[in-house]
Design a protein that fits this description.
Layout (H helix, E strand, L loop, with lengths): L7 H12 L1 H12 L40 E10 L9 E5 L25 E5 L5 E7 L4 E2 L6 E2 L2 E7 L4 E7 L10 H4 L11 E3 L10 E4 L2 E3 L3
Parallel strand pairs: 1-10, 1-11
Antiparallel strand pairs: 1-4, 2-3, 2-7, 5-6, 7-8, 9-10
């Protein structure tokens, strides 16, 4: 049974409803074994050097500009947890990414793909009391690297700072052909699946053409 998106309290509630305290005890034992930590990755060369003063959860626009970023709108959400499945409150969650054309807003990015004047590609927020975070952004494009025949698949960069741990990682999208050829993703020997999000249809409270992207982030100690 998948438990990465549920707290111990929620799982115990399900367990009791499904058959009593003995069943709940088995679920408690399963939680004690722990979730797998989200795998770490390199920071990469395009960590933002200029960050806007107004840092929030919406990357689809730039403060003071009327336009909207080009590309498929996605709502990225999940929880920051420890390996016991407990939520981590107040974790600092930073996100940065390429635009829909596969280019970063960074002076070192020499990709000839166009910049988007309505997209800065960086946001930060703190997880809430339930460990939840949420960003509104666009799905990034793939882009070539300096290594021959290596094109990076769409991905998001994260830096997550908890009370004990600091994690630098990347989130990938399911079903991307380039995932199978990506040197960084394929190099993840431990919990590769933990780096790949789940994509769901839009809910009634978001744009009908958007997608929901769900990804829990698991820190070793929190």
């Amino acid at each position: 049974m998948e438990t990465a998106g549920l707290s111990r309290r929620e799982v115990l509630g399900i367990a009791v409803g499904a058959g009593g305290l003995a069943f709940a005890g088995r679920f408690e034992a399963a939680f004690a074994q722990g979730l797998k930590p989200t795998p770490g990755e390199i920071l990469g060369p395009f960590y933002p050097v200029i960050k806007t003063v107004e840092q929030g959860a919406d990357l689809t626009g730039v403060p003071g500009k009327p336009g909207r970023a080009a590309g498929q709108i996605i709502h990225v959400m999940g929880r920051v947890l420890n390996v016991q499945g407990d939520p981590i409150k107040g974790a600092r969650v930073e996100l940065w990414q390429a635009n829909t054309h596969g280019r970063y807003t960074h002076p070192s990015d020499k990709n000839p793909a166009p910049l988007d004047p309505n997209f800065e590609g960086f946001a930060v927020q703190n997880s809430d009391a339930e460990g939840r975070y949420r960003f509104k952004t666009i799905k990034p494009g793939a882009y070539p690297t300096n290594t021959p025949n290596w094109v990076r698949p769409p991905h998001l960069h994260f830096e997550v700072t908890g009370k004990v741990n600091r994690l630098i990682t990347q989130m990938y999208f399911p079903g991307e052909t380039l995932n199978d050829k990506d040197l960084l993703l394929q190099n993840l020997r431990n919990n590769r699946d933990g780096a790949i999000a789940k994509v769901r249809p839009p809910t009634a409270d978001v744009e009908p053409e958007s997608r929901i992207v769900v990804w829990d982030i698991v820190l070793d100690k929190g």
